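Dear all,

This email documents one entry for the complex benchmark we are building for the journal club exercise. For each entry we list the sequence lines for every component of the assembly. Then comes the predicted three-dimensional structure of the complex as a token string, followed by one or two observations. Please use this as the template for your own entries, and keep the labels exactly as they appear.
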Amino acid sequence: AQSVTQPDIHITVSEGASLELRCNYSYGATPYLFWYVQSPGQGLQLLLKYFSGDTLVQGIKGFEAEFKRSQSSFNLRKPSVHWSDAAEYFCAVGAGNNRKLIWGLGTSLAVNP
Amino acid sequence: DAGVTQSPTHLIKTRGQHVTLRCSPISGHKSVSWYQQVLGQGPQFIFQYYEKEERGRGNFPDRFSARQFPNYSSELNVNALLLGDSALYLCASSTFTSGPIYEQYFGPGTRLTVT
């Protein structure tokens, strides 16, 4: 069965520090991978996606993610975190003919000034 | 262009009642999906509709139903509400391509509290 694991429930970083959020997936076919961000009281905003091709993908707000098939991972990175990046981050994999998204439990990011 | 809109923003219901949630997709998008997000968890897929037809259903009881209208807006209905139905209900719209996956754009959600 398809699944997504985000091992870190909560992460705290200092403003200006680098960030890496982990995501591991289980899916039998070619995965279609997404990272979304959810701020308090807000809906989900797409940060970036991987469908095929270059395994390093660039997204909005200075985020990037690298797809590693051998490790079944799609980790999200940012070289320098801003206080406004504090939010909940979700990794998702697209699955099935009905195109549904399967989601991880999310990682809550706090940013210290 | 307006994004995905959902109404109401919040509502409180009592166990056993019925609720209807509404969603208007982005102009030009013909597919709408519904997700339930319980506090502290990721969203769970409920339904997908395209051109007024159900194209996918998640693992939810028959108390949950939905429909899509000719203008592509959608309603999610939940009957016989349980305390466990308390959640943020998210609507996502997208184009519907022939490819295996597509980008989904989410609305702000409806926060349902069942007491």
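Observations: Chain B touches chain A at residues 4, 33, 35, 40-45, 48, 55-58, 90, 92, 94, 100-109 (CB under 8 Å). Chain B has a mean pLDDT of 92.
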